[in-house]
Amino acid sequence: MYLAVILDFSWKEFLLGGEEWIFLTEIILRTLIMFITIIVGLRILGKRGVKQLSLFELVVIIGLGSAAGDPMFYKDVGIASSIVVFIVIICFYSFITYLIGRFKRFENLLEGKSIALIEDGVFSIDNFKKENLGSDEFFSELRLKGVSHLGQIEIAIEETSGDISVFFFADDDVKFGLPIMPGSLLNPLKFVENSGYYSCTFCGFTEEKSSGNGGKCKKCGKQNWVLASNKKRIT
């Protein structure tokens, strides 16, 4: 019985599954196409989709994971096919890494640029709109860094990794700014009852107002306001 099994063993089936040798060349083309497809898809998703991993690290993980996993479970997927996929991905990855290190424009095209989301305590609206990032998620990250209002922030930058870098004003330079604590934006005002500093709920622009109609924001044109805060950070 065991002799029959041994005699029936086929190296071609073991290496290629049910395919012919010519299929290996097709695998190379298939792998390159899917590699590029994954890159384009992740670029569309934006930096937040690949947070804490570089774009190519994630692509390699996805590609190699699939190549390694399929032949483990499916008999009709040959070992040689997976090895070719590994070789193609590693070579293509190495080539792209070389291009990124050599050409800055190529790096910017594939991985994007760091971008300022807050400057001088106010949202950089045009930059913020370009990113696939919700305000609640962003505020949550700022709170984890000890921020309670935007007036504490000199500049906040979204890095190419998707992480947020925050640079703070010195305590003596903290300004009035938009509060970002949970629930602080739930009841915006159009009419100001008490004089004081108020922040636009859309862009964070802050100015001193007297009692009366809040009016339009000078930066974005919106009309919703909340009482600003100038608390210092607790570190």
Number of strands: 9
Unreliable residue stretches: 1-5
Silhouette: elongated
The whole-number mean of residue pLDDT values reads 80
What is the makeup of the main sheet? Answer: 4 strands, antiparallel
By secondary-structure content and strand pairing, the structural class works out as: alpha+beta
How far apart are the termini? 74 Å
Element order, helices and strands?
HHHHHHEEHHEEEEEEE
Strand content: 5-15%
Q: What is the helix content?
A: 40-55%
With strands numbered from the N-terminus, the spatial order across the biggest sheet is 2-1-3-4
SSE layout:
Blueprint: H1 2-8, H2 11-16, H3 23-45, H4 55-73, H5 79-102, H6 104-111, E1 115-119, E2 122-123, H7 125-130, H8 135-144, E3 153-158, E4 164-168, E5 191-192, E6 196-200, E7 206-209, E8 212-213, E9 225-227
Antiparallel strand pairs: 1-2, 1-3, 3-4, 5-8, 6-7, 6-9
Q: How would you portray this structure in words?
A:
This protein has 235 residues and is α+β, with helices and mostly antiparallel strands. The protein is built from eight helices and nine strands. The protein has helices spanning 2-8, 11-16, 23-45, 55-73, 79-102, 104-111, 125-130, 135-144; strands at residues 115-119, 122-123, 153-158, 164-168, 191-192, 196-200, 206-209, 212-213, 225-227. The longest helix has 24 residues, at 79-102. Mean pLDDT is 80; it is low at 1-5.
Quick tags:
235 residues, alpha+beta, 3-stranded antiparallel β-sheet, 14% strand, disordered N terminus
